[in-house]
Amino acid sequence: MKINELFGKDLYVVNIGSPTFLKDLDSQNVKYENLEWAPPAHGDVELIKVLDKLERHKEEIDKANDEVVAKVKAAQGKLVDCKKAIDAIPGMKPNMILHSGPVQDWEHMADPQKGAVLGAIVFEGWASTVEEAEEYLKTHEIIFSPNHHLNSVGPMAGVVSPSMPVHVLYDEVNDTYAYCPLNEGLGGVLRFGKNTPDVIERLLWMKNDFMPVLAEALKICGGIDVRNIIMQALNMGDECHNRNKAATSLFFREITIPIMKTSFPEEQKEKALAFITNNEHYFLNLSMPYCKLAQLAGTGVKNASIVTIMSRNGYEFGIKISCLPDEWFVAPALMVKGLYFPGYSEEDAAPDLGDSCITETNGIGGFAMAASPAIVKFVGGTVADAFNYSQSMQEITWSNNPNFTLPALDFKPSALGIDIRKVIESGVLPIINSGIAHKKAGIGQIGAGLVTPPFECFRKAIIAFADQFED
Amino acid sequence: MKINELFGKDLYVVNIGSPTFLKDLDSQNVKYENLEWAPPAHGDVELIKVLDKLERHKEEIDKANDEVVAKVKAAQGKLVDCKKAIDAIPGMKPNMILHSGPVQDWEHMADPQKGAVLGAIVFEGWASTVEEAEEYLKTHEIIFSPNHHLNSVGPMAGVVSPSMPVHVLYDEVNDTYAYCPLNEGLGGVLRFGKNTPDVIERLLWMKNDFMPVLAEALKICGGIDVRNIIMQALNMGDECHNRNKAATSLFFREITIPIMKTSFPEEQKEKALAFITNNEHYFLNLSMPYCKLAQLAGTGVKNASIVTIMSRNGYEFGIKISCLPDEWFVAPALMVKGLYFPGYSEEDAAPDLGDSCITETNGIGGFAMAASPAIVKFVGGTVADAFNYSQSMQEITWSNNPNFTLPALDFKPSALGIDIRKVIESGVLPIINSGIAHKKAGIGQIGAGLVTPPFECFRKAIIAFADQFED
């Protein structure tokens, strides 16, 4: 049949992988079937070669990945103590300040993180004003370290200085600990870079008044099972990253009587309880270190292609994979797309920031959005989007987690174990629910939305991963 | 075409409304389209005439129903006090015992309700043993009254005697009050007819120790907004009838600090808080009186065909409609179909019991099952069933309630205002999530499941309703 004859007839078209052709077909009222398709690895020849090579090692990689997800699923996590970072975290030094994301120096630090560091210096009493703190930095050696290097995690700026109280979580299966600073609440807080006297005063109260009450209460009750609360909260509308209302409520129920039993004055106990119940996000700083503990359990497994860390410092996004625990794979952090509070827009936003996407790394947060229809009112989109995100994350994970179920999807287990092979092959990136910080220190949260790691992190990771194997 | 010729050919059948024909078609491998259809009012000629008559008064009925649902939606409900029934409930008498469901006498009373009455007599000190209590009943006049006659509601047996503490809820929009006894917890409790010394002791503790603490705490905080908690809890996996975990948590968060601020000894406050937090169903006895208040707001509207009460005493099911507030329409209560605890079956079950379906009457509970996928693990069925029930209830309600939303159904408002015309026309009956009591007093809950009112209640109601109109 000649081509002119062909186009003279009624056509029924099958379109494969080209959305632009569809528009033409639509405009000409031509019937078609559309098949969504994209070349593996965005058609990147180097990456296709890498995938081919890894295909030849499929068996050993698959086996290693099975081991990772089994360990991650089995990990426990109990809040057992609340202590100063210097007393709790092995490797913490008296002149060290921890921060979120991959390795960072003062010069390239995002403004909210800088603001938080300056606030921490005042909080420590190393300077009495923020201006003095800037001077102090020039004349004293401060060691900056990512939280993750010391098994700590912190939301947003994630700044932890030696005297700050941290939640201490213990995994009895693996005999490991993880740490997280306490959540200060919303509004003007250190994690968004605010460092005014009211912020410092609240941090001092947390250290001097709140920490000892919580620590004694935890001794009285023998600790609180954080994993168990996450399991329940996912069936109560939380995704335990940006929505923690149910989890905070359940935690509050468990800690109330132990706090009442402590030896502190009535008013101090009352204030401690009020501090928890007045902050719907209190539990975020427990869900994060639990996810850290679980991912720790899956760290260091030879040949495993599972992501164990995703984290961002407001400048770069970094990931780590199980078999290469000492290597960060970094690329410039993206901007969060979402809903802005009145008066703000993307122009005002800092790039993606914080260790909190350890939750998504562990299969909750954005991965469990289907558990939390109400989250779309905070991060944007529709309930159907939330369902779809949870479904599509199954495409890039090695397994799923029966401990963490999605009620509206008939209690389907949440996707678990991001496999860099699957990310590269499908081009689907992990979805992250995230708060949005103002790019200037101290203004605070200006919105919330969705973001992904840059593809480049995974490109770098898979090349390094493949280098470990013989041809 | 002759009939023999017709059946000699290949047939493509359209089957309308007859499921038995389908089986034959299936067995003969005949292709068909099936149209589900049932005659209005089950084909009952009398009821069809009634519906015809009401159709001629459609305008005035519709208008009245609009008024009912507007009032119901606007009703507020705050827990303002906790008092002895005799001190709280106007019309309560020193020798009166309230019970769930429509009017009932001792002779026909279901066994769990009898057990609860005997327990109440011991609790009041009118007798010192259950045996003595039976004697007391023969020699003393006890007035039995449905809770609903005094704007009270009680789950299961629903027994309230003069000295029992009740939650007092206030609707400031309509200046009305509703009442409910306190939830004792699960297991062996009075509302399932248990009346052993441990049950009586708990009730005495509730009166002597718990009630004054709660009452003082409510004065300190100025009351707690129950409607607001229901609104939130429906977005946290509760349907606020058989699942109240989130609502109980939110209530606990609000009452903790006020209880700490009361003047009572530490230990008493601690025990009061433990009593609330150790009972996931505590909030049921707040959600019920809120629903009662809301339905009260819609009561007594001339020409309105909306159901304002559904209730059962373990023997009969009774409903009331807005325009005939003094008439019960009763029929024998049905059996609950559902999941039984190990060792029990339907043979052990009492018929449907309790005032708790005031929640469904007000558009939550079974009507809001889509908000609570986890409920299917308790009452049986699948998550899809839960979604379908919430959808199908929209067929028999006059409106829906934007205050009560169903997150998984894209925050669709829950069905509100059961219209007896629609029930009769469609044959669809209100769905109720219900606990199942053992038929013998004192054994307690043996399962949970789904039930409906008998169709007969609606048949009687619509005939009486239609009698109010001229031809």
Description:
Two copies of one chain form a homodimer. Helix content of chain A is 39%, strand content 21%. By secondary structure, chain A is α+β, with helices and mostly antiparallel strands. Chain A folds into three domains: 35 residues, no CATH class; 195 residues, v583 fold (Alpha-Beta Complex); 213 residues, Enterococcus faecalis V583 fold (Alpha-Beta Complex), CATH 3.90.1710.10. Chain A has a four-stranded antiparallel beta sheet. In chain A, α3 crosses α17, α4 crosses α12 and α9 crosses α10. The relative contact order of chain A is 0.15. The model of chain A has no long low-confidence stretch (mean pLDDT 95).
Summary of the model, kept short:
Chain A is α+β, with helices and mostly antiparallel strands.
Mean pLDDT across every amino acid position of chain A: 95
Oligomer: homodimer
Shape of chain A: globular
The largest sheet of chain A has its strands arranged as 7-6-3-8
CATH superfamily of the largest domain in chain A: Enterococcus faecalis V583 domain
CATH structural architecture of the largest domain in chain A? Alpha-Beta Complex
How much strand of chain A?
Answer: 15-25%
Let me know the number of strands of chain A.
17
Which chains share the greatest interface? A-B, 29 and 29 residues
Which percent range fits the helix content of chain A?
A: 25-40%
The name CATH uses for the topology of the largest domain in chain A is Enterococcus faecalis V583 fold
User: How does the major sheet of chain A shape up?
Assistant: 4 strands, antiparallel
Number of helices of chain A: 17
Structural class of chain A: alpha+beta
Q: C-alpha Rg of chain A, in Å?
A: 24 Å
Q: What is the total number of structural domains of chain A?
A: 3
How far is it from the N-terminal to the C-terminal residue of chain A, by CA? 48 Å
CATH class of the largest domain in chain A, anyone? Answer: Alpha Beta
Unreliable spans of chain A are none
